[in-house]
Amino acid sequence: MIRLTLSLILVVWGVVARAEVDIQEITTPGGIEAWVVEERSIPFVALEILMEGGGSLDREGKRGAVNLMMALLEEGSGDMDARAFQEAREGLAASFGFDAYDDSVSISAKFLTENRDEAVALLRQAIVDPSFDADAVERVRAQVLSGLASDAKNPNQLATDAFYAAAFPGHPYGSDMSGTVESVSALTTEDLFDAHRDTVNRARLHVSVVGDISADEAGVMIDTLLGELPAEAPPLPSDVAFGLPGGVTVVDFATPQSVALFGHEGMKRDDPDFFAAYVMNHILGAGGFESRLMTEVREKRGLTYGVATYLVPRDHAEMVLGRVASANDRIREAIAVIRSEWARIATEGVTPEELDAAKTYLTGEYPLRFDGNGPIADIMVGMQQVGLSPDYVLNRNDFIEAVTLEDVNRVAAYLLRPDALHFTVVGQPEGLESGPLPALVAN
Q: In this structure, are residues 28 and 39 in contact, taking their beta carbons and an 8 Å threshold?
């Protein structure tokens, strides 16, 4: 067992208090590895479970099966229908969450110490013995189909779908994990059980527990919950290269405002330069009103209410992405300014003042993320997923502080490629057509 103690400023019930986060790496009696934080000050426990694979493991022609399956896990299990299950959960004052993502499925739970055994038994039933009752399936299927119908009228979702379809053709990333109207409508109960076997298992499992529980108690609880799940899973999809060259794709859509998703190939999370890229991106577009793009696109020119960029190191592909929205007669200029700033930071770099401000913000906000048992459990399971060790919570701010001006400017020079940017624009943009990037306008 490895123990690590971290002193953090935690905000609990609106009061700033000093607290200890003692991360224990354990292996349960059944052989499941987990991280545990014993915190006895409040009589409840938070649990996070993450299983790698997610919607990327949808079987051929069954797109949306994993998403629908996860939405059904609290809609009846064992001999309980949906109402009986919800009444039992509410009677225990427990909270469960079941979510699906492209690269994982996750299960979260919060429950009082006094109800722990009953809550764990109910959660285990949902995880291990889902019923996929026909009435529940049709009700939740209708909700998914309603969401898909809404997405078909949402410019941001249309931009996302078109961008990813062109960037990753033939790969699971190239389609929305929610599926299509046709694929979701055709899903059978057997498809849902297949999706459950493929994704809810111990093959690529990460677990964290925080709260009023010892490491030994947590080990027994985890085995009770997950010990009967299959130990094997289908192979993950292969890695895929970002497949969009620089340019513009216009998706015609009747709206007074165009929205754009833009980006190019990015950087892996374990790249030695990732922290430098993270700081650089904060300065470029992730730093809210202090970022270069917000200053140039919104504050100086009034072209948008908001523009932001993101580093997206997914499991099988890496991207630098951004979003912006602007009036149809101004989106062309907004794109030109974004490209200009992309080029300027790549060639000229950032200033010492920008670097200092970014470090101050990024190191100052980090401890505020640890504001309760649930957030701590979520952070810990995320760390496990990307291969970080428990001491990352101690060292993370040191990594940020170690980034130099030379590091940021060197990374900006090779990571940011304005000519490789692809803009997928949904709307009726004036003076902008699908094809090569237009000439830059003068700033």
A: no
Q: Which domains does the chain have, with CATH numbers?
A: 2-226 (3.30.830.10), 247-427 (3.30.830.10)
Phi, psi (degrees; rounded to nearest 5) at 51? -125, 120
pLDDT surpasses 60 at 4 = no
Tokens of 215: 């490491």
Q: Residue 203 has which token pair? A: 């093959």
The helix or strand, by DSSP H or E, that contains position 278, with its residue range, turns out to be: helix 274-281
Determine the Cα–Cα distance for residues 227 and 31; give it in Å rounded to an integer: 9
pLDDT in tens, 227-242: 999 999 999 999 999 9
pLDDT at residue 387 greater than cutoff 80: yes
Tokens found for residue 185 = 């409508």
Closest CA to 214 of 26, 20, 388: 26
Kindly report, residue by residue over 282-332, the tens digit of the pLDDT.
999 999 999 999 999 999 999 999 999 999 999 999 999 999 999 999 999
How does strand 205-211 pair with strand 33-38? parallel
> In which residue are the tokens 């996750």 written?
106
Evaluate whether 259 touches 323 at the Cβ level (below 8 Å): yes
Written as six digits, the tokens of 126 are: 């949902």
Is the distance from CB of 111 to CB of 213 less than 8 angstroms?
no
